[in-house]
């Protein structure tokens, strides 16, 4: 029976109107569970959480400043590698890439003229040739 199972059992028993004191993994009642002072809270926390097991989660491992710096550095490295790959790819394909980009720029620039000529009844091939 894990920690989360105990919480569910306690929540169910509270809904039914039966309030039970917290218990340890071995079934013993936590000392100081009825007292609302700080010593009771510490005793309950010490009894419910095993002290010899290291607490490791992603949040605790990467939550400090060094973890934040490592995460940000990894993001910067990924962006730089992707940008370098894009530049390399464009330089490699420049004989194909530059004419295609120029054609797209010219086509989008002259599209309003072509559209106006076609609305006046001119065939599409002739409108494209005139512009």
What features would you describe in this structure?
The chain has 131 residues and is mainly α. Helix content is 69%, strand content 0%. The longest helix is centred in the middle third of the chain and has 28 residues. 1% of the residues are buried.
Defining traits:
131 residues; mainly alpha; 6 helices; elongated
Briefly, what is this?
With 131 residues, the chain is mostly helical. 69% of the residues lie in helices and 0% in strands.
Furnish the topology, listing elements before pairings.
Layout lengths: L2 H13 L22 H11 L9 H5 L2 H28 L1 H26 L4 H7 L1
- State the helix count: 6
Structural class: mainly alpha
The outline comes out as elongated
Instruction: Give the biggest beta sheet.
Output: none
User: For the residues shown, what is the average pLDDT?
Assistant: 74
Q: What is the count of β-strands?
A: 0
Indicate the low-confidence ranges by residue numbers.
none
Percent range for helical residues?
Answer: 55-70%
Element-level helix/strand string? HHHHHH
Beta-strand fraction estimate: under 5%
Instruction: Evaluate the radius of gyration.
Output: 35 Å
């Amino acid at each position: 029976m894990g920690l989360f199972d105990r919480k569910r059992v306690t929540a169910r028993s509270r809904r039914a109107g039966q309030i039970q004191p917290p218990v340890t993994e071995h079934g013993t009642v936590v000392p100081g569970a009825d007292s609302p002072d700080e010593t009771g809270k510490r005793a309950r926390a010490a009894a419910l959480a095993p002290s010899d097991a290291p607490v490791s989660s992603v949040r605790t491992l990467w939550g400090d400043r060094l973890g934040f710096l490592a995460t940000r550095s990894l993001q910067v490295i990924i962006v730089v590698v992707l940008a370098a790959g894009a530049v390399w790819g464009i330089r490699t394909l420049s004989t194909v890439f530059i004419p295609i980009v120029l054609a797209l720029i010219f086509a989008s620039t002259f599209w309003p003229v072509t559209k106006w000529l076609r609305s006046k009844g001119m065939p599409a091939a002739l409108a494209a040739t005139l512009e």
